């Protein structure tokens, strides 16, 4: 019995790179950059020159996005995300 790696075992993904984030949420990599800049997505974690987004950070950030048709008002303690016509 040697030390072999079982390649058939599923390993949970804890972090995603920029292209994987884009694919996971259905946008382009450039849109990921814009969403980070606008605060809709968290900034990536960094190890040396490698940037990684924690899946848990992405889920938490996206859970705070407003739902369509529901206005979030400043007096409720959050940012006003409603769109003015």
Automatic annotation (TrEMBL):
It comes from the Bacteria. This is Transcriptional regulator. It comes from Neorhizobium phenanthreniclasticum.
């Amino acid at each position: 019995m040697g030390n072999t790696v079982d390649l058939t075992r599923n390993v949970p993904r804890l972090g995603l790179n920029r292209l994987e984030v884009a694919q996971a949420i259905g946008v382009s990599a450039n849109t990921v950059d814009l969403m980070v800049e606008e605060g809709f997505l968290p900034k990536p974690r960094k190890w040396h020159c490698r940037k990684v987004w924690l899946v848990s950070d992405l889920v938490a950030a996206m859970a705070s996005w407003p739902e369509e048709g529901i206005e979030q008002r400043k007096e409720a303690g959050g940012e006003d995300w409603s769109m003015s016509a």
